[in-house]
Amino acid sequence: MHRLCYGIAQSLHRDCNHLANHHHSSLICSMFPHHLSVRPLEEQDITHIVNYWTQSDESFLTSMGVDLSLLPQPEQLQALLDKQLQTPLPEKNAYCLIWLADGKPIGHCNTNPTIFGHSAYMHLHIWNPQHRNKGIGAHLLRMTIPYFFNDLQLQILYSEPYSLNPAPHKALASASFQLEKEYITTPGSLSFEQEVRRWVITKDAFHKLYPASIHHSL
Predict the structure, then answer these.
(1) Is the pLDDT of residue 212 over 90?
(2) Domain annotation covers residue 30
(3) Is 48 exposed, middle or buried (0-12, 13-18, 19+ CB in 10 A)?
(4) What is the b/e burial string over 148-187, where b = at least 16 CB atoms within 10 angstroms of the residue's CB?
(5) Interatomic CA distance for residues 3 and 210, integer angstroms
(6) In a domain, 20, yes or no
(7) Is 7 or 143 the better-scoring residue by pLDDT?
(8) Whole-angstrom Cα distance, residue 72 to residue 205?
(9) For position 210, what pLDDT does the model report?
(10) Cα→Cα distances 31→102, 200, 207, Å
């Protein structure tokens, strides 16, 4: 059984079929220079995420607003992700999706914190420099949004990137998030206090912008 998910045609500037296969639980898009897809976190992905946080260039992490002194040890991250994977969906504080190009994991997008049936805060991460600043994240984000609204039964989805980190702001704007405000806060457990821009998309806006993406998770 297949589910069809369309992005926003005017923002793509090309034809793009978003095909979701229920058995593999992934959204697929043949476009750009890569074959892009999205799926939920699996056990084999955990090492990639641990390596991202513990081996990325320190200047890159700081540019995202990360306080390096707060980074957990690899074994702590492993344990946290293992727990996340085993927690039932309605009880998850963090729900993680994996971003793939040509079938290979290149990043992840997760909610944290998450209030099932109500709201969540979303975070975007592309692991390797060769995949950044090429527009890939914006396309993957459009494919990710239906998962969060449908699987978590959200009413509203937020994202609060560091104001000095331009890439996520471009991706969020292209996915039709609305800029709500700029303010100073500590946006995550690994962040220093910083100025952020809060972007938001509501359930009503999601249904209007992604009308064919509405599906039922079985």
Answers:
(1) no
(2) no
(3) middle
(4) bbbbbebebbbbbbbeebebbbebbebbbbeeeeeeeeeb
(5) 13
(6) no
(7) 143
(8) 37
(9) 85
(10) 11, 26, 23
What SS3 class is residue 1? coil
Phi and psi at 125, nearest 5°, equal -145, 125
The domain that holds 70 is classified in CATH as 3.40.630.30
Residues 55, 83: Cα–Cα separation, whole Å: 22
Higher pLDDT, 88 or 30: 88
Q: What range defines the domain where residue 184 resides?
A: 38-213
Q: How many CB atoms lie within 10 A of CB 95?
A: 22
Q: Is the bond preceding 113 in cis, omega lying within 30 degrees of 0?
A: yes
Contacts of 85 (CB under 8 A, 6+ apart): 41, 42, 43, 46
- Tally of domains in the chain: 1
164: number of CA atoms within 13 Å, CB side? Answer: 11
User: What does the alpha-carbon distance between residue 211 and residue 9 come to, in Å, rounded to a whole number?
Assistant: 12
Residue 34's pLDDT is: 74
C-alpha to C-alpha distance for 142 and 164, rounded to whole angstroms: 22
Name 120's bridge partners: 114, 157
* pLDDT exceeds cutoff 80 at 24: no
**Residue 28: both structure tokens together:** 């697929």
